[in-house]
Design a protein that fits this description.
Elements (H helix, E strand, L loop, with lengths): L2 E6 L6 H13 L2 E7 L10 H12 L5 E6 L3 H8 L3 E6 L2 H17 L4 E6 L9 H9 L10 H12 L4
Parallel strand pairs: 1-2, 1-4, 2-3, 4-5
The chain binds 4'-phosphopantetheine.
The site of 4'-phosphopantetheine has 9 residues, from strand 1.
Length: 162
């Protein structure tokens, strides 16, 4: 069984992230989206909220699931028996960073390869940073967030003020 992990902050999950998991699910037997802690970032949503939105977004993909992990990515991949990481690249800056991360993760777990998938042209401008701004300024999220995740977000917002 070929298992891939799709790691990230997912703060929140975007249509670009969903596209990655859908494409990964067509290539691997199982894809596990992993909601992680990025030490460089101050998230808008808690790990539990990010996980709930991700799970809602993936609910139509039978061989995809989502989990949260507060540790080293390579340890999560080892625990799951994953052979690959899936990351999206929108531009050269993403590539430079993901190339470095791929080397680091392969150094930590030699059997773990990284698959870099080019973002679809229509998703090139979409990022979690941009979605957070859309949320802050109460803009419509139809184009940038999967609808089931936006529905979870709506419930979260009803109990919270940003
Ligand atoms: O969506 P992001 O913020 O670009 O995802 C980055 C993330 C969370 C995948 C990365 O920061 C990460 O892997 N963090 C976990 C700690 C880790 O394993 N770091 C790499 C080796 S030092």
């Amino acid at each position: 069984m070929k298992i891939a992990v799709c790691p990230g902050s997912f703060d929140p999950i975007t249509v670009g992230h969903l596209d990655l998991v859908e494409r990964g699910a067509a290539l691997f037997d199982q894809v596990i989206l992993c909601v992680m802690v990025n030490g460089e970032k101050h998230p808008m949503f808690t790990p539990e909220e990010r996980l709930e939105m991700a799970r809602a977004a993936l609910s139509h993909i039978p061989n995809a699931s989502a989990e949260a992990w507060d540790g080293l990515l390579a340890d999560f991949a080892r625990e799951k028996g994953a052979c690959a990481l899936i990351k999206g690249v929108r531009n050269g800056i993403d590539f430079e960073w993901e190339y470095q991360m791929a080397q680091i993760n392969r150094g930590l777990l030699p059997e773990l390869d990284t698959l870099l998938l080019p973002a679809r042209a229509e998703h090139l401008h979409i990022s979690s940073t941009m979605v957070r701004d859309m949320i802050r300024y109460h803009q419509t999220l139809d184009q940038c967030m999967p609808a089931p995740a936006a529905a979870v977000l709506q419930r979260i917002r009803e109990g919270k003020v940003y």
